[in-house]
Amino acid sequence: MGKTKTLKEKLSMKEKKKNLEPAKNRFEMVKALHKRSLEKAIEEKKADKLAIPMCKFVSRTKNFFTSSSCAGRIILLQLPEDESKKDACFHRKWHRKIKEKELWEGINAESKGNLWFKLDPFILHIGANTIENARTILKIMKETGIKRGGIIVAKPGKFLIELQGTQVMSFPVKKEKEAVIDKEYMNYALGIANKKLERNYALLKKLEAAVPY
After folding, report:
1. Could you tell me which of 171, 190, 168 has the C-alpha nearest to residue 179?
2. What is the extent of the structural domain holding 186?
3. HEC states along 8-19?
C-alpha cells in the first residue's frame, strides 16, 4: 500500500500548482504572440527564408517558441565616418551565398558614406517555459558545437535564450565614392564568406535536428 498523503501535503501541492498557473499563462500568451508575429512576417515576406523552417519547427513544440531570428547573411552596409550604428543602413543584403557579379554591382552602385562588407552569422532567440527547458537548449547548444549563447531573460514563464554563430567577416570596401579594395582580393574574400555561410547553415540544421519536440 502506498503512503497516504496528509492534508498538509495535499494543501502544499495545491498551493504549488496554484503558484505555477501565472507562469504557465504567461508562457502560453507570449508563445501565441510570437507565433502570430512569425506568421505575419512570413505572409508579408519579411521573414528570413532560411530561418523559417527552424522557427516553424520550434513554434510547433510544446515548451518553446522563437522570437526575432536570422539564419545568417552577407551585407553591404553604409556607415558614416564615425561608424555610428544609428546612422547605418543596408546598401545590399543577401540571406544566401552570392556571386561576384552581384557583389560588384552593389559595390559600384551609388552609396553614401563608407561601404563595409559584412558576413553576419545566425542569431536565434528561443523562449522556454521553464529554467530546466532553457538549460536543455544550452546543453544542446554545446553538443552541436555552438560556442556563443546564454539566457538573456529569466522570468517565470519566460526564459529567453540567445544563440549566435561565430562565422563572421567585416571590412571596408569603399570610401565615399572610391573602392578601397582590388577586385582579385574582394573575389577571394567573397569565396571565403560563401564557405563560412555554408558552415553557418550546416550548424543551424544540426541544432534544428537536436531541439526536442
Report:
1. 171
2. 14-210
3. HHHHHHHHHHHH
